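pls ignore typos typing on phone
zinc ion + seq
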Amino acid sequence: MEKIELSKHVKQGDTFYTSFTDPNGLGDKLCLSSWAKSRLPEFLWIGLIIYNQGRKNGFENLYCIIKDLECEGIAIPQLSKIFELTEERQRKYWSIITQYVEKNVLMPLTTVITPDINEIFYDYFFDFSMNIDDNILKLLDIAKESNRLHDELSTDICFIVDWFYVLNGNLYISSEIDILPKALSEYYKCTHEDETMRMYRPVIRSVCQNLCNFDCSKMFSEKIWKVLGKISKCNPLRIVWDEEGKMGFYEITKKTIEYFSANNEDKKMESKYNVIMGMTCYIYKIYQEIIEKKLQNDISGRILFRTMLETYINLKYLIQQESKVPDIYDKFKAYGNGKYKLVMAKLREGKYTVSNDSQIDEKIMGLMVNEDMDEAFVNISIGYFEKTSVRNKFKECKEDKLYEIYYEYTTNFAHGFWGAVRESSMLICNNPAHLYHCVPDYNVDQKLRSVLSDCEMVMKKTFDAIANYIELPDFYNI
Ligand SMILES: [Zn+2]
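k done
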């Protein structure tokens, strides 16, 4: 399907809808259907014949089969419909098939069409000497080759289904449309490589889609997938990402930080210095933890990167606001102390208690809250610092891309939203019978693309942001 541009989405409330999902448009009438999920199992027997006999022989034999079936008044392609016939007619159906097709061609189906689904079919085709694993593999092959409606085998199956409807008189062909009769009569003569097939294939498929809509049983298909899903194992695939990262910049960063610590004696008593270098160190420490603890391909790497980003934007925002709000650094510290005070006071006042082993230490928090001034003078703000949301801070710092791409993406990881869960903790199963579902990554196999290069970008931006206030060493000339 063609991708829809963001600007073509329609906003309603806090949701952007596409033209397919717009509740005032197509949205409530749209019923998503899937070829593999709801139809393919009905026609697996046709797939097996084409798969085993090849297109040419398969088509020729199926054509004869349909004609013979029609003579008996039982030319229907759907297994669920065949199973509704009387016992005698069902036996007739399969006896006609086996005039043209060896029994072992349809035998794999007995692994999924068990006696409780249809005893006649099972008794007719089951063979005690058959190798169950081989038969399951054969079905999986068919499922893989015809999983999508656009697959060549799917189109071949559609072609045969179309012919069922032509020969049983249920497909009316308008004389004004010449492409359909042509497609129906020429399709089997062409190979899939032929140029004309590009024209025939969509016609064959869309006719089949229209004809089958009401005759296929979704329930039957689901039942077959369920059995096949149960008897075949998951085959989870993981994406392998390179764990190596460029280490050069990290070494320069370490030396730059050492340079900062050896200089700047003159500034060390200033609030501004405290805040700017405190935040720079915070960003650096996270960067350092990611590298030293090799977290670059882990979930934690992404969450840590997001914190580097948020700290950087706060730092840049402070520096930018300094001319308008001269005591911005003291205010920033007081704002943070207020946040600590709120938690600490709830513990001190007994609203909640935490275990002695908890990471939270009420006394240490208390010391920090009272460090700059007695807590009696520390306000508690529950809003944003300087009433500016994170989004707006990025905007005012002209870092929209950092927000709209990097921050929004990693927010999924910080909040455990589905995209992040899917990318990091779910693996796609390569078993076609499982309809490409996802399985949880129980063995912790899936790694993520490294965050190192993005961390490097934020670290560089941090140095750029402080460069007017803190002298960078000569060797730092990136
Ligand atoms: Zn699976």
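Residues 37-232 form one domain. The chain has three domains: 6-32, 37-232, 248-466. more later
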